[in-house]
Every structure is written in structure tokens, then in C-alpha cells.
Amino acid sequence: MSEVIEKGALFELELELPNDKIAAATKRLVGFEVRYQRLHRDLRLLADPQELTEWCKEFHHKELPICAVVMERYPLVIFAGDVGTGKTATAEGACDRLARVRKKEAMLFKLSTRVRGSGKVGEMSTLLNEAFEVVAKQAGKTRQAFLIIDEADSLASTREMVQSHHEDKVAVNTIIQKVDDLRRHNGRILVFLCTNRGAALDPAIVRRAARTEEFNRPNDHEREELFRMDLEGLGVKDQIVHELVRLTGARDGQPGFTFSDLRSKLLPDALCRAFPSRALTGEDLLQAANDVRPSPMVKNGL
Ligand SMILES: Nc1ncnc2c1ncn2[C@@H]1O[C@H](COP(=O)(O)OP(=O)(O)O)[C@@H](O)[C@H]1O
Ligand SMILES: [Mg+2]
Questions:
Q1: Which ligand has the nearest atom to the CA of 89?
Q2: Which candidate in 28, 87, 97, 287 could, as Cys together with 194 as Cys, close a disulfide (CB 3.0–4.6 Å)?
Q3: Residue 150: closest CA among 216, 215, 218, 80
């Protein structure tokens, strides 16, 4: 294994925003608009505290303590919830939207899980430091950088855990320190931390989050919306759609399907029953819904 990890390896994704591919994927996310409507003002405040100062001047004609309080928050948002409930996709979509709304050049970085390194002493914090440095440099250039720390529980698990290794503790301390530094960038860096195990995150990180969004498995309406969107053009009858919704809900002691169970397991399974020799039928979908199992619930939620 090489001693030096190249800069490129720090991030699994590094791209300019707005990005049309992300925008197209976001359009196909059930519930995104509702969630984004709820989130966007707050995200905007975090990404551009200057706007708040201007608002305060315009509508209150003086400095207000409430604005100072709001501006003191850390530009850190936590997305917590089960695997496959849309945390990563929503974080990417939200960054893209913010870049569009604010008409500012922006870069999106997604931290690679490779920053865990190979277990050498100090390696993980060195890589984390390097990653934040690259992001800070970029924020200086383009004025806005978004950083998604995905699967954050693998980096930022609570230091209280019995089996927590010294290396992991150092990494958590590094993240905390970096988050503390973020405020200096005046919103130019906004961090999204996604985790499947919110309760395992270190409390010092959770406490710093300006906002924590919970993600759940889709309810009946959301699964129906997904089926109607993804089965468009097949002429599937309402009755079949309703049965699919029932079969993919929580039942017989098993949890309901996640969004990714539906899209990456159930629908491909149904299609493979017909492909390549015949047309896809409602019966294929029902059989797939009966055969495919939802992924088990991740313990340690929020
Ligand atoms: N709200 C949603 N609507 C439709 N499909 C979704 C939604 N959220 C997630 N998915 C599907 O599940 C896949 C995995 O989502 P992802 O964001 O990676 O989940 P998580 O980060 O919570 O594990 C996505 O690529 C998408 O196909
Ligand atoms: Mg994810």
C-alpha cells in the first residue's frame, strides 16, 4: 500500500454545481420537495449569514440579538436514518438546489471512506485534515463548498464506546475541531453528515449540528408514489399498485421496504422475470414483492 494517498483519493466525488445529473435524480426522489421546502431557508441562512445581516437591516433597521444567535450556529447538518432511505441522494439534491437558487459557483465534495486509512497511527486524522484543507481552499476560490461526509458513523462514532480504538477517538476529535473551524468560513463551507446510526454519533458532534433531519422508510403514500412514477407506461392497474403497496409495507414481523429495496431489488427482480423474452406484467411485480425481502432495520437509530 502506498505511503501517500493522492489528493483524489480523499474524495469519492468532486464536482461543480449546479449539476444536471443530480437535478434529474432529485426529480425522481419521492418527498424531496416537501423536505426541501422545510429545509431550504435554514440551509440558506447557514450558507450565507450575510443575507441575514441584510435582512435584519432592511426589516428591523438595527442589529438584533436573535440574528447573532442564529448566526452563531455551526454550518453542520446531520441526516440520520436507516440505510436506503435517501440521505445521500437528498444531501446531493439539496446542495444542487442551493447552488441553483443562490446562483453562485459551488463545488460538491463527498468524503471517501478511504480516509479511514490503513489503520496506521495518526493516518486517519492526517487524511481528514488534508480533506478539510482542500475543501477550505476551494471555498476560498468559488465562494461555496459543500462537503458530504457519508456513512459518518464509521468516522465519528461516540468516543464513549467500549470498543472505540484510540485512532477512532483521534478522528472524532479531528472532526470536532474541523467543525469548530468551519464558522470562520462564514457559511462558505456547509457540511452534511449522513449516518445510518444516529445514536452512535459522538454527542459533541450531534450537539454542534444546526439541524438534524430524520429519514424513515417510506410510508404507504410514498411507496405508492414511487410505484406510480417508476411503473409509468406499463399500464399497471390500480388494484395491482395497491397490492404492491400492501406487500411492501411492514407485515408479519418484517419491516417495510426502504426506497432502495424497492428500486434496486424489487423492480429489477420483477423485470428479470420478463426480460428478455416477454412483456413485464403486474403478476411479475406481485411475485417479486412476495419474494424479495426488505433489508433488516439498522439498530441504533436516533
Ligand atoms: N426519496 C426517495 N424516493 C425514491 N427513491 C429513493 C429515495 N431515497 C432513496 N431512493 C433510492 O434509494 C437509493 C439509495 O438512496 P441513498 O440516498 O443512497 O440512501 P441512504 O444514503 O439513506 O442509504 C437511491 O439511489 C434511490 O434510487
Ligand atoms: Mg448513503
A1: 1
A2: 87
A3: 80
The span from the CA of 155 to the CA of 175, in Å, is 9
- In three-state secondary structure terms, 38 is helix
Joined together, the cell numbers standing for residue 224 give: 405508492
Distance 56 CA to ligand 1 centre (A): 38
- Domains annotated on the chain, with CATH: 7-215 (3.40.50.300), 220-291 (no CATH)
pLDDT above 60: residue 27: yes
| 263 within ligand 1 shell (Cβ under 6 A) | yes
* Ligand 1 atom closest to residue 92's alpha carbon, by position in its atom list: 17
C-alpha grid cell, residue 193: 453528515
The grid coordinates listed for 143 are: 465562494
- Quick check: CB of 248 below 6 Å from ligand 1? no
Contact between 170 and 178 (Cβ < 8 Å): no
Ligand 1 center–CA 55 separation, angstroms? 35
